[in-house]
Design brief:
By secondary structure, the chain is α/β, with parallel strands linked by helices. The protein folds into 2 domains: about 200 residues, 3-Layer(aba) Sandwich (Rossmann fold); about 200 residues, 2-Layer Sandwich (Dihydrodipicolinate Reductase, domain 2), CATH 3.30.360.10. The chain is built from 13 helices and 15 strands. The radius of gyration is 21 Å and the shape is globular. It starts with about 45 loop residues before the first strand and ends in a 33-residue tail after the last helix.
């Protein structure tokens, strides 16, 4: 059993470029030769070839931001399992990035092994923007091949996937590769300012953190006559927990990442709570919930509360509020960044595009030869959300050690994917009846 403290990094730290859902690149063998990557900077003046894996809206936006981040970066290869997604993304990127899009037809890869073909095409940087289920294997392949990586959040859907990501992050560190996470709020200037002050003691000892991520319903794609079951699942990956992790993992993980950040990336010791499905009762919503409420307890007695829902015609809220012995820190995303109490403070500095800043800092790190590695905290923040799902599904109090060492694997093995695969979607979980694995 791993010690909680041994895996935690204390390093602190887009929505859609076009409004499309990201699609997956999946399958294929993970056997890939490991190459050596020295500490010297070989990218100071040379062009940086970018490969995009996953050509949905998030991937298209990430590619545009990557090309904007560096004057000598070019998009060199693209991959997806759906040809229409790739071609739509290619056309959109030409409109915004012009001749920086240099993807020849031979470097457009369609299929279950497309991510490997992108990696071996000669790129320097890989953007991993598929649904979460595939990121552990894609990240492993990329770092084994010596590629710098932008890896969207969350980075896994189950605890074994988190372990894969931690192992890949270690390899990236050994090879001096940059690994930047899609946890964009850590790249937001107001957040950096206020959480930095809290971590420096501006509100005293932290006693309670509350996080809210309340919003409306997500997108849905109607089934088409020529779609197999797998194609339908993939087009609507958000609604299947074996592809998305459930919405607490896929979206609300941002809130849990900020909770972890302000707590110094120390993991709680236990979690309890609930969740359910009141509005998403139609079969088209797969097997995910529409609300969760979870309490995390830290070793020092501090509590973290996470509330999230996706229900139409309900009020929206996206906030993090931190209560300490000498004041409070109030963050209402995009609107309010304020410290009350002994050390009053309000953010009045620069506002930035946090999605762009992620890529600006990634490419600057590659050029300078001083790699960024977000691997440990992006994995453990993802694990917090997976843990929250476990608590909500089962209705049980679960310790960190139990959650982190869970052997539950939600989806197929990477080499089992094909268009005729009929993966059995588990029934909707019922707290008190669904068992912890």
């Amino acid at each position: 059993m791993k010690d909680r403290k041994s895996i935690i990094s204390t390093t602190p730290g887009r929505r859609d470029f076009i409004k499309k859902s990201g699609m997956a690149i999946i399958g294929g063998s993970l056997t890939y030769p490991t190459i050596s990557f020295g500490a010297t900077n070989t990218y100071k003046d040379s062009p940086l070839k970018v490969g995009l894996v996953g050509c949905g809206g998030r991937g298209t936006g990430a590619a545009a931001q990557a090309l904007e981040a560096d004057p000598n970066a070019v998009l060199y290869a693209m991959g997806d399992v759906f040809e229409d997604r790739l071609e739509e993304a290619h056309s959109a990127l030409i409109q915004v990035a012009g001749n920086k899009v240099k993807v020849e037809d031979k470097n457009k890869f369609i299929g279950f092994d497309a991510y490997l073909r992108v990696i071996e095409s000669g790129v320097d940087v890989v953007l991993l923007t598929t649904p979460p289920a595939f990121r552990p294997d894609h990240l492993t392949a990329a770092v084994n091949a010596g590629k710098h990586v932008f890896c969207e959040k969350p980075v896994a859907v189950d605890a074994p996937g988190v372990h894969k990501v931690l192992a890949a992050a270690k390899i990236a560190k050994e090879k001096n590769l940059s690994l930047v996470s899609g946890f964009c709020f850590r790249y937001d200037y107001p957040n950096r300012a206020i959480y930095g002050r809290v971590l420096d003691g501006a509100i005293g000892d932290i006693r309670t953190v509350t996080t809210f991520r309340h919003g409306g319903e997500a997108w849905y794609k109607d089934r088409q006559p020529d779609w197999t079951d797998m194609a339908y699942n993939m087009r609507n990956w958000y609604y299947y927990n074996w592809l998305s992790g459930d919405f607490v993992v896929e979206q609300a993980v941002h809130s849990l990442d900020m909770m972890s950040w302000v707590m110094g990336d120390k993991m709680p010791i236990s979690a309890t709570g609930t969740g359910g499905r009141q509005v998403r009762v139609d079969k088209k919503y797969g097997n995910i919930f529409d609300h969760f409420a979870v309490e995390f307890e830290y070793e020092n007695g501090a509590k973290g509360y996470h509330f999230t829902r996706q229900q139409s015609d309900t009020s929206h809220k996206n906030s993090v509020e931190v209560f300490g012995s000498e004041g409070s820190a109030i963050v209402h995303i995009g609107r309010r960044y304020e410290i009350t109490g002994k050390n009053k403070w309000t953010y009045g500095g620069e506002r930035n595009n946090m999605f762009q800043t992620e890529h600006d800092e990634l490419f600057a790190s590659i050029r300078s030869g001083n790699p960024i590695n977000n691997g440990e905290w992006m994995a453990t923040s993802t694990m917090l959300a997976i843990w929250a799902r476990m608590v909500g599904y089962t209705g049980q109090t679960i310790s960190w050690e139990q959650a982190f060492n869970s052997q539950e694997i939600l989806g197929p093995k990477v080499d089992e994917y094909n268009w005729d695969l009929k993966w059995p979607t588990p029934p909707v979980a019922v707290p008190g009846k669904t068992k912890f694995v």
